[in-house]
Amino acid sequence: MKYIKPYKAWFILGPLCMIIEVAGEMFMPLLLAKVINAGNAGTLTIGSSIGTAGLLIAIALIMMAGGIGGCYYAAKASIAFAGDIRNDLYRKIQSFAFGNIDRFSTGSLVTRVTNDVTQVQNFVMMVMRMALRAPGMMIGGLIMAIRLRSDLAIVFLISIPVLLLFVGGNILRGFPRFKIMQEKVDGLNSTVQENITNVRVVKSFVREKDETKKFGKANGDLKNAAMRAMRVVIFMQPITTLVLYATVIAVGWKGHALVLNGEMAVGDLAAFINYVIQILISLVMITFLLMFSSRALASGKRIIEVLEEEPDLNDDKAQQKELTVKYGAIEFHHVSFRYYKNSEDSVLDDINLTIQPGSTVGIIGSTGCGKSTLVSMIPRLYDPDEGEILVDGVNVKDYSLYNLREGVGMVLQKNVLFSGTIAENLRWGDEDATNEEMIAMAKAAQADKFVSTFNEGYETQLDKGGNNLSGGQKQRLCIARAMMKKPKILILDDSTSAVDTATEAQIRHAFTHELAGSTKIVIAQRINSVMDADQIIVMNEGKITGIGTHEELLESNTEYQEIAESQLGRKGA
């Protein structure tokens, strides 16, 4: 009702227009019977023929207007209905945490927002066009047929139950098959999305044949599932046609004897057969409506699963929703975290850490030791399983998600830009920034050097994901975008790995001036990137194994000494 209510006028007008068409269908056979009976009796005149023809044309035009109106309002209502559902689905997905998205998979969410909503939209349109028309035709046809000849109408006691039993059985068979088919659509979408997103990797490893084979399997699974589902539909048409014409033959066989014996007029038999056809066609319409309802129900259930999913992270219990990040002080108190909650191994294990506001902190350690996970907890991309994280002395869960994340700027390991201009991408950091402010931050991130060489400058159009830029160019634009927020906490997750050391040094120097009061956390693989930090954190296997300056760690921390020796020479000399 939530999605019907805004368009209730269309939802009412559509079926009412179809009723106009049904009313016409009830009168047409009677008028035709009158003409046939008059012609058979030799009483048909030119005047009466013209009058009846005019009336038939008028009824046909009214029926046409009703049919067009019904289709028009059904289309408007169903499209608007589906559009609102699609909007709500997208908004709900935007509220999901990473864990929610992982549970559904990206491909499945794409299918639900597109294909599943389309299935429901088509079903709503069918309901509006048939829900009143088909029962109206059936009930009206039965009444008219019984009025004409009740003893002939007994044929419906056999044909209608046969059709209903067949329909019921098909729906029971069809629902699980359509559900499986939609799941196979998920699999196909995931395969296509993964391949196209990572097409450069596929080509560089010459894996086109393997990926084609992988797609072929997903496509074959969908084809087989679709065939199993469609077999249910395929048998509907011949069975319903068989019942329809068997009933017509039975009526014709019984009716011709009545006509020959003078117990029934020829025109009345023709009208009766017309009503029989109308009744059985209406049953066929109801049959197909119910049949397609099984697919729509499967899609509807999948849509509802997304709408009813509770985001893993929200600020419903936040105690200080109006609070904003002012200083950038950070504390971790006994923080532990597992991606897989039933796993014994923690990604982070009893982390205790204090970061002073305005300081520059480097984090270094082996791949997979939990560096990215650690900083992802500051803006609540994940919540710890144990312990708490404080920003400015307040638990991050007590901030609203919006205010917390507004105070934190992040440049992730995977540099993501969106289709649009360079300026539009940079203004994600501050949509109200002037051109001068935008260029100043681009200069600070060493991005203006290459942007100014483009013919269109900051109005240069980027491909999806910024694929028409190099890795280093994307990194610098992402850094500039984060700096434009002027965040109190700036997190750089290995975000200068694709730039040379001289450029990296210039970017670090810019941080000192442009973000002097901000807390800066730099995750890096190179010691050169963090050696000048106020504090360096060394991590290994989810634990902090050392904290100190570059000189202090060279003296006291074995792991840091090994990294320094491998990168800078013996003991970091």
Largest sheet: 6 strands, mixed
Q: What would you call the shape?
A: elongated
Number of strands: 12
Helix content: 55-70%
Q: What's the gyration radius in Å?
A: 36 Å
The strand line-up of the biggest sheet is 6-9-10-3-11-12
Judged by helices, strands and strand pairing, the structural class is alpha/beta
Q: Note the beta-strand portion.
A: 5-15%
The stretches of 5 or more residues where confidence is low (pLDDT under 50) are none
Output mean pLDDT. Answer: 86
Treating each run of at least 4 consecutive H or I residues as one helix, how many helices? 19
Distance linking N and C termini: 72 Å
Description:
Helix content is 61%, strand content 10%. By secondary structure, it is an alpha/beta fold. The strands form three sheets. The chain has a six-stranded mixed sheet with strand order 6-9-10-3-11-12. A four-stranded antiparallel sheet has the order 2-1-4-5, with no helix packed on it. The protein starts with 7 loop residues before the first helix and ends in a 5-residue tail after the last helix. The model has no long low-confidence stretch (mean pLDDT 86).
